[in-house]
Amino acid sequence: GVGTASLALPPASLEAPGSVQQLPVPGRDSPVARAHRGLTLPTVSHYRLFPKALGRLVAALGVRELHLALTQGFWRTRYWGQPPLQAPAGAELWVWFQPTVTDVDKAWKELSNILSGIFCASLNFIDSTNTVIPTASFKPLGLANGTDHHLLRYAVLPREVVCTENLTPWKKLLPCGSKAGLAVLLKAERLFHSSYHSQAVHIRPICRDASCLAVSWELRQTLTVVFDFFSSGQGKKDWSLFKMFSRTLTDTCPLASQSKVYVDISPKNKEKELLEVSPAPTSVHEAIVQGDKKTYAVYDLLSPSLFNTSRSLNVQLKWKRPQDTEMPIPTLHAQRYVGGYGLQTGEICTLIYNTHPYRAFPVILLETVPWYLRLYVHTLTIITKGKENKPSYIHYQPAQDRRRPHLLEMLIQLPANSVTKITIQFERALLKWTEYPPDPNHGFYVGSSVLSALVPSVTAMKDMDVEQSPLFASLFPSSDGSSYFVRLYTEPLLVNLPTPDFSMPYNVICLTCTVVAVCYGSFYNLLTRTFHVEEPSRGGLAKRLANVIRKLRGVPPL
Amino acid sequence: MCLHRLICGQFEFVDSDRAEQFFRSGHTNNWAVLVCTSRFWFNYRHVANTLSVYRSVKRLGIPDSHIVLMLADDMACNPRNPKPATVFSHKNMELNVYGDDVEVDYRSYEVTVENFLRVLTGRIPPSTPRSKRLLSDDRSNILIYMTGHGGNGFLKFQDSEEITNVELADAFEQMWQKRRYNELLFIIDTCQGASMYERFYSPNIMALASSQVGEDSLSHQPDLGIGVHLMDRYTFYVLEFLEEIHPASQTNMNDLFQVCPKSLCVSTPGHRTDLFQRAPQNVLITDFFGSVRKVEITTETLSLDRDVAGFESKFPEEELATEPLKYAEQLPVAQIIHQKPKQKDWHPPGGFILGLWALIIMVFFKTYGIKHMKHVF
């Protein structure tokens, strides 16, 4: 059994100007820019809730949207269902810059360096060899007026490790830190003893209110953790907050305007009374999340009735009847693997499944492959149900050695109830011996490919449902209730490159010097040495003395 | 003030010519650079060594902003660690030196000889964040702790490169010439560690090593649950010694020199104090491991302006949009299909092409003579 805890903390939006703390406002838009019709974003100027580190960063570098995710593990869609918000293994950073930024690449490099200091991650390794500019995926998630893709940058570092040193600064960005509110549950020893751990930071401009005439900055920090109780030796599928986090909730953050815990109690196959949550929730809320109607037991931590008896809240769930472990198969899921053998060539295969019984929908596939795997685009084949499937849009940008990775973006139509197989062959390049990392036999990672799709909903979402949807479901704006937007990631690949023996330079020098000294030296000697016959010396002492003197003079002897 | 009197009191007992002993130490801030240079799971003990010094240094008051922590591999969240997010120093998992509040500045592949020397000398690319810089000045006491695998005259970084004692001595000399430290304590826990401090020649450096030239530093004890050796002997006993220190203790360096005798450590720890101006018995442990500040109590008061109305007027009015703004469409299929390809910018031909054409034209005219030019133009 698996207990999923998805914490989406309330966004911190700017308050109306006039709060107590006043900080110097960075340069406002020039009058010329204001005259143009465009989206003028307010500068972040007071930091009661919004952390100063990120506010100054956004203002100084002209960032419109920032999305950073650090993930350990891979979301197993077939066992755990559709992910609420998935991120690729390692570190993923994508940023939309404002049109006022003239040198986007320079701003991108500075941004990744500053973020590496804030989050203690090696984001400074982001450079042109792993940055791409997608042309169709990664549209802005916030308010946007025109989308010029030259202002977008996307990079992923699949080798990045996520550990407590990344969680510590993430917790420090919260208004109450990890001292009050829901964040007291976040202790590293329990969070990293899990099958999947993903923390993310999203900054984007949003509508301040329903009329959408003013713009606010939204900072959204999400943390998704999957606890696997079978592997941690607990066996039963009942869970409680204490079992998962080894502590309970005691109070709320004084700065929070809402603080809620949602427990998914949706009935499966229309059976009710299968499970029991305790203590009794403050309310039961129905919402349409990811195209399906779900029922949530909501614990509102701000309501006074919740904490009146004891100061600690430990939410527990017990199953009344044994449940089978089958999760419903999601409408869209994918997997990717490397085929082939040997250290010269290989093949990347991606399988995309559409399990909807009668609806077809398009999906955009974005693949970023490092330059040292040379893709052969003429071997790209897309096969659905035995026939070739031509994509409606392809954008391919070939790699440049040591400068740019491959970028392949395709818009593929997935027929109903089908499996689409995309294969492309590649050849492995030989790197220079200084370019290998200290542990080259581990292999080299290829980042996850990204699938963006509008999946048809089971239950259509109406406009008023959008207003009431819980916070964790409102990251992707929905234009049309009949389908919902989802972004999935495939597995990262681990590929072995032909690795040299690193002791060879030393061996080669020794061998070459030996060969040169012994063989060539002897040969040279043989060629240039002159031989002459030497007579046995006869004669008396005087003759010998005379010969010595003659030798000294350089004259032939007697 | 009390502190002033204490110093005056001591002043009477020492040689009155030694004016530099009037202040116990001339430093105003403390920095620490803690480096673990080994990769791979079986070098767990080197990460545990560095983290135990990190923990002591944080406990005694040096903040994260003044610590540059470099760990060459991740042991806590390593897939082979049976207890994720923990690094233990004592067997039976008694003490978790990793803790819940740790900030690693240089991780994994970033720990290289070049980065280490850049941190020390301050010659860092301008875009480096503050947490990765050693922003010390001439009144800083710096503690440098290094651990890993070493040999006679070198220390191995990540199994692929090494730093020699000459390079290290030169780096310290650069620091001295740029006045980047007031006093420096260098501790090294590797095999043949004493060879690393043999070549120092800058003033105000005190050095400690876990073993002499020709000796190996040994590891302490394995934990059968984790499966590797948890700490090295020298740092294990240093950690036990440091656990007794609190910010007000008066323990001095001579006690640190006695920390691991040959009976416990098997190797002979060494130290070098000839470059240091003060005598070791006058140097407190907290001068380097802690961040003890001199506090001056004042009776002046400062009144804060409670009137905040003035702030509101300074904030300019935001302009509102005339029509409601909207979110971008996430998957505009029609727009994507009909996207126009990006116009390729025209670049003038590069030097190679120009050179090639110049060569071809020159050869042509050389062969056929200059009088044919009128047929070309």
From TrEMBL, chain A:
One GO-annotated biological process of the protein: attachment of GPI anchor to protein
A single cellular component GO annotation: GPI-anchor transamidase complex
Domain of life: Eukaryota
Residue ranges of the TM segments: none
A Pfam family this chain is assigned to: Gpi16
UniProt cross-references to PANTHER family, sorted A to Z: GPI TRANSAMIDASE COMPONENT PIG-T (PTHR12959:SF11), GPI TRANSAMIDASE COMPONENT PIG-T-RELATED (PTHR12959)
UniProt protein name: Phosphatidylinositol glycan anchor biosynthesis class T
Gene: PIGT
From TrEMBL, chain B:
GO biological process: attachment of GPI anchor to protein; GPI anchor biosynthetic process; proteolysis
Keyword Transmembrane helix tagged: yes
Biochemical pathway: Glycolipid biosynthesis; glycosylphosphatidylinositol-anchor biosynthesis
UniProt entry keywords in alphabetical sequence: GPI-anchor biosynthesis, Membrane, Signal, Transmembrane, Transmembrane helix
Molecular function (Gene Ontology), one example: GPI-anchor transamidase activity
Stretches that traverse the bilayer: 346-365
Any one GO CC term of the record: GPI-anchor transamidase complex
Active site: 149, 191 (nucleophile)
Stated family: Belongs to the peptidase C13 family.
PANTHER family: GPI-ANCHOR TRANSAMIDASE
Subunit structure, interactors included: Heteropentamer. Part of the GPI-anchor transamidase complex, consisting of PIGK, PIGT, PIGS, PIGU and GAA1. Interacts with GPAA1. Interacts with PIGT; this interaction, via a disulfide link, stabilizes the expression of GAA1 and PIGK and links them to PIGS.
Protein name: GPI-anchor transamidase
Organism of provenance: Cyanistes caeruleus (Eurasian blue tit)
